[in-house]
């Protein structure tokens, strides 16, 4: 088994809506004060910020192999991993959507998680598949 989970469209839509609203507010303020062209730079700044966030999200990966699980966070430099044979229990944290956990804390014998996965970036069906893996021993 080797599977790579990549981010779904959800974070891009959320960021798009947020930055779209900010852009519309900037344009509204500029037009109300007769400064339409002066708002070009802040709007470009909003677009650049969106691009940076989107690029970070695109970097995120969860790689599941036969013997290990690896996590590359969106803005982290280092990939973290845990051997599946060391996993003692995993705990899923749920907020509003019980079928799509926010995080998965994977413990490997200690009281501190060996790995914490942020799952909201990923597609719901990929998260359901990950949570169903018997090697992760998810405590429901």
Structural write-up:
It is a single chain. By secondary structure, the chain is of the alpha+beta class. The protein has one domain (1-140): PH-domain like. Helices cover 36% and strands 23% of the residues. The strands form two sheets. It has a four-stranded antiparallel β-sheet, with no helix packed on it. Strands 7-6-5-8 form a four-stranded mixed β-sheet, with no helix packed on it. Helix 1 packs antiparallel against helix 2. The longest helix has 23 residues, at 10-32. The two termini are 24 Å apart. The model has no long low-confidence stretch (mean pLDDT 90).
Quick tags:
140 residues; alpha+beta; PH-domain like; four-stranded antiparallel beta sheet; four-stranded mixed beta sheet; 3 helices; 8 strands
Q: How many individual β-strands?
A: 8
Helix and strand succession? EHHEEEEEEHE
- Give the class from helix and strand content and strand pairing: alpha+beta
Beta-strand portion reads 15-25%
The residue ranges in which pLDDT falls below 50 over 5 or more consecutive positions are none
* Shape category: elongated
End-to-end CA span: 24 Å
CATH C-level category: Mainly Beta
The radius of gyration is 19 Å
């Amino acid at each position: 088994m080797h599977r790579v989970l990549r981010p779904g469209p959800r974070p891009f839509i959320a960021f798009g809506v947020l930055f779209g609203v900010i852009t519309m507010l900037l344009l509204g303020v500029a037009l109300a004060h007769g400064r339409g062209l002066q708002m070009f730079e802040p709007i470009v700044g909003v677009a650049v910020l969106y691009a940076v966030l989107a690029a970070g999200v695109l970097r995120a990966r969860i790689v599941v192999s036969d013997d290990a699980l690896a996590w590359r966070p969106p803005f982290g430099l280092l990939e973290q991993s845990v051997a599946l044979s060391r996993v003692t229990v995993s705990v899923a944290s749920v907020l509003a959507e019980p079928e799509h956990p926010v995080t998965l804390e994977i413990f490997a014998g200690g009281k501190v998680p060996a790995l914490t996965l942020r799952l909201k970036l990923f597609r719901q069906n990929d998260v359901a598949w990950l949570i169903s893996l018997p090697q992760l021993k998810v405590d429901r």
